[in-house]
Each structure stands twice: as structure tokens, then as C-alpha cells.
Design brief:
This protein is mostly beta strands. The chain contains no helices and 10 strands.
Length: 106
């Protein structure tokens, strides 16, 4: 069974046991997080697509750690003008392990 969830402005296709990295969510390592914004639930030959979400469906996950993503380098240059700008960014992320999918009223 799999589900499509929305968190941090992005969508993720998850199944039980998957480890995903999402934008930072509040909580401590070892805590449980529940996602209620489930856009689709599928598997076992049945699929339920929400409008916009599937009623009663939820996905639970365990927070493994709060971390930071690799650094992204932003470099801007205008040729022949002597214009160069360099900046960097590291996004705060949460690493989650999906523990269960409740299909709701599928």
C-alpha cells in the first residue's frame, strides 16, 4: 500500500518502511508525526484519489533526526562587467520513517 502526502509545499509518494527527507517539522527524534493531507491512497488493486484530500486517511511516521541538507551554492555572474556574487544555503530537514498508512474512507 502506498500514499501521496503533501508537506512543506511538496508531494511525496510513500509506503510503509520508507525513509524520506522533508522540510523541517517540529518535534524531537523518536517522536511520532501524523500527516492528514493525504492526496491519494493506492495499492491492492484499489486507488482512492482525494478532491483535494482523501477523507479520513492519514500517514504516521517516526522522526529519526533533525538534520541539514547539503549546501547549495548560488553563483551569479555578468560576463565582462566585473559582477560576481556568491552565496550558499543549507536547508533544515527532518528525516522520517513511515510506519503506517490508514486508508480512511477509501
Amino acid at each position: 500500500m502506498y500514499a501521496v502526502i503533501r508537506t512543506g509545499g511538496k508531494q511525496y509518494r510513500v509506503a510503509a518502511g520508507d525513509v524520506i527527507e522533508v522540510e523541517r517539522l517540529p518535534g524531537e527524534a523518536g517522536g511520532t508525526i501524523t500527516f492528514d493531507e493525504v492526496l491519494m491512497v493506492g495499492g491492492d488493486g484499489k486507488e482512492a484519489v482525494g478532491a483535494p484530500t482523501v477523507a479520513g486517511a492519514s500517514v504516521t511516521a517516526t522522526l529519526l533526526e533533525q538534520a541539514r541538507a547539503p549546501k547549495i551554492i548560488i553563483f551569479k555572474k555578468r560576463r565582462r562587467k566585473g559582477y560576481r556574487r556568491k552565496a550558499g544555503h543549507r536547508q533544515d530537514i527532518s528525516v522520517l520513517r513511515v510506519t503506517g498508512i490508514a486508508p480512511g474512507a477509501a
